[in-house]
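During the reporting period the student researcher (J.K.) took over the structure-prediction task from the postdoctoral fellow and processed the backlog of single-chain submissions. One of the processed entries is reproduced below for the supervisory committee.
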Amino acid sequence: MTPPLRLAATILIAAGVAFALTAPASAATASLHPTPSTRASVPTAAVAAPKVSVGLTLADSGDLGAGEPLQAVVTVVNPTTTETPAATATLSIDANPFTSRSTLAAWFSGKTSNSIAATDVATAAVPAVSSQLTGSADLTAAATALPLTFPGVYGVSVEVKSGSTVIGSARTAVAWNAASAATVPVAIAVPLTVPASSSGFLTAAQLTQYTAPGGILTTELSDVQGTDITIGIDPRVIASIRVLGKSAPASAVAWLKALGQLPNESFPLAWADADLTAPLHAGSGAVLATKSLDYAINPALFPTSSGTTPTPAPGGSTGSTSVPTSSSLVAWDYTLPSLEWPATSSVEPTDLKPLAAAGISSLIVSSGNVDDPDGQGLDGASAKSDSTTLAVSDDVLSGYLRTAAATTTRTSAVTPITELTTTLALMGLQSTTPRAVLLTLGSNWATSTTSFTRTLGDLYARSWVSGATMTGVLAESRQSVTLDKDTEADSRIDAVGELLSAESEVAQFAPIAKNPTAITSANRLELLALLSNEWIDTPTTWATAVQAYLSQADDAVSSVQVAHSSRILAGSDQISLPISITNGLDQDVTVQLSVRPRTARLSIDPADQVQTLVIPADSQRRVQIPIDAVSNGKAQLVVRLTSASGLAVGSPQVLQIDVQAGWETIGTLIFVALVVALFAFGLIRNIRKRRRANAAADDDAGVETDGAGTND
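J.K. obtained the following structure tokens:
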């Protein structure tokens, strides 16, 4: 190590010691990365040692030149309620270098049977550590004490003992005299995405938040500027900014312009970074894509144009300010337009054909998605399966990179950086012409990667590491690989199947609407948003969002219905049956109303049995259906709504009708009979009265005659 590097290493160690002594929260920091110290803690069975964790960091992240001393810092984190005893730390190193990536990875992960290196090279006293505090000690092994002969990567460990009791141990590795290692090209790919949500487009408020200083999109963009990193761009972000027109936040417009000026290689992600293959596994016959976006375009948000079709400006800036089209909303000048990035370990061999049919000829897949006898990564990233080109990201190295980028201090980043750079050194020492490797960061990496720029600097500072592009990766000779056949969890695929079924029901329902694409297109965008890869890491939250989508879809297909009716009394031979139809959509619908009796007690003219009706948005319409009652009794009418093509709309309603045919005619006859009887009774009575009156008059006249005769 040169004097400047040695000085830097000394400063680094001093900083590490200072941090360890003044930061009792180191235990929380250590949890960000399962370091070998945590995994290799070895308490003895004889004495119940405090449950402390031991860490080991090397100067210059394990880059050790020939003739240089090995300098290290051991830390003891005590989260218990009791003080640890004073102890001794012993630094050890193996005399034999690692011969394969698999053995090195097993050493780092703690899976090897031997947890301590073979040769002791230095010791140091570790003071007692009080509860909730961290103690540390410096260890230095002279160059002459190191049993190293050949350039290589060697295991290093530390064991902390109090008397005969082992308090803990930790392990790492050193790349010794690795200047002779061949350069390993390292390419990095990252997604430019935002936190998962169930909305199709991003709102102006969300865009303002994400593109503000410190926002996730702002951070992602600034972190990749000036690098060779390949970026996967979520087209939802681009379209969400463009569709807002003159109402788009100024910060979002500026961000989109800066994105268009980036020289980095780029490729499209699925809308909302949706899972490409889960729908295929759930029964979809093709890769899900967006439908028309025209429904979301409001011409009032754009200046009056000359009527020409807008085209995106070169480099993918915001493009024309005239009214956009569905295609221009998402248009972008990608350098790798046929490359896509499915969810981790999600691609099966049978997926390749439908992916190719969707225009996807190249994929980024994880090494865990590939059958590999080593299990620790392939010999380079360039591969193929059948006719599909693959860029295989290295899961192990990507894990080291992600952990290093997520650390909050340089001290806590030393361990993952050491694991990453020493593994690359081993690859460079084992091959004169190493193939390019691909590393990736996960969804929304900028929310947790506080040390991304520093991590890149530490990585590419190694003499055996060089930058590479995705084009360079794909240009290398491709090794044939076999993709795994059993990838995503059955529970996830089952849930995706439910989502597809719900979308299918909405698609069958939509044609009755005045603008059906406004329903189907918006519904597809929401479905893609629910398939965002980020939801995979939050299954509980995702399950809640899935249920909300299913409920929303059910509400949509139930928004046009025949209103429920109580039992109806048909009290005449002919009646007009009122039927109400509700429309809960925000647009007019056209339906066919079908009314058919189940019994012969009712009769409906064929011309009235089927009617085409237009129901205004958010309203209810009542229609009258003429019905003839044939005979008395209970009857049923089945009322259905269908689309013009005959597909059912809503649920059929069965109306219950009590038929009392002809009761008014009988009543009228009875009434008439009663009236006639009353009239006859009155007439007869009058006649009898007159007869009695006439008889009385005759009697009076006879009396008068008799009297007159007597007087004579």
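The committee noted the following: The first helix runs from residue 3 to 22.
J.K. will present the remaining backlog at the next meeting.
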